[in-house]
Design goal:
By secondary structure, the chain is an alpha+beta fold. It folds into two domains: 2-55; 70-186, no CATH class. It is 32% helix and 26% strand. Strand 1 (2-7) and strand 2 (10-16) form a beta hairpin. The longest helix is centred in the N-terminal third of the chain and has 52 residues, at 29-80. The relative contact order is 0.13.
Length: 187
């Protein structure tokens, strides 16, 4: 049952329940509470979406960097298989690469046709390696023979860190596995 009650100068609408108690209707309060809840829910949803987008980008970058590192390791492995053919680069030094070298500088050295007797590039140009003789602590390495390799993904969008493989024996290597030098360290 609905009726009107006059309180002071204002008339309010009341609904009586089965027990005869009067309930005053709250005009607009429920709307404001619902709008506040919707606003908070919207903010939480937008924040979650933004966080998911950032996580997706991070995962993509990690995948690209891991793939570039695999290209570098593949190039080092391929060059290791050619040690009987590729001779050590005796005059390798600071002029070729600096201690902070990246893919572009390394690619320029490894892809140079003048360095074919020392270096090898993967067929898709995603990785390269050079067989070098290091002296004087260049690049923070001990004196000796190394395979230095780097890899990249999609033209340098992501690049792996350099891979240094120390070749154990001082000889040039041979065609058979028995004559081929071993690996003393893989960084």
């Amino acid at each position: 049952m609905t009726g009107h009650i006059r309180t002071g100068h204002r008339q309010e609408r009341v609904t009586k329940t089965a027990g005869g108690m009067a309930i005053r209707k709250q005009r607009g309060a429920a709307l404001i509470v619902v709008l506040l809840f919707l606003t908070v829910s919207l903010m939480i949803g937008l924040s979650s979406m933004r966080s998911a987008q950032i996580d997706e980008r991070l995962a993509g970058n990690y995948r690209a960097a891991a793939e570039a590192q695999m290209h570098a390791e593949n190039a080092a492995s391929a060059l290791y298989g050619m040690l009987g053919v590729k001779e050590a680069w005796k005059g390798f030094g600071a002029d070729e690469l600096s201690s902070g070298f990246g893919w572009k500088a390394f690619h320029g050295v490894a892809a140079d046709t003048g360095n074919d007797s020392h270096c090898h590039m993967l067929g898709d140009d995603a990785g390269g390696a050079c067989h070098v003789s290091v002296s004087g602590g260049h690049l923070g390495l001990q004196e000796g023979r190394y395979i230095i390799a780097m890899g990249a993904v999609e033209g340098g969008m992501a690049e792996g860190g350099p891979v240094f493989v120390r070749v154990a024996s001082p000889g040039a290597g041979g065609a058979s596995d028995a004559e081929r030098p071993g690996i003393s360290a893989w960084h």
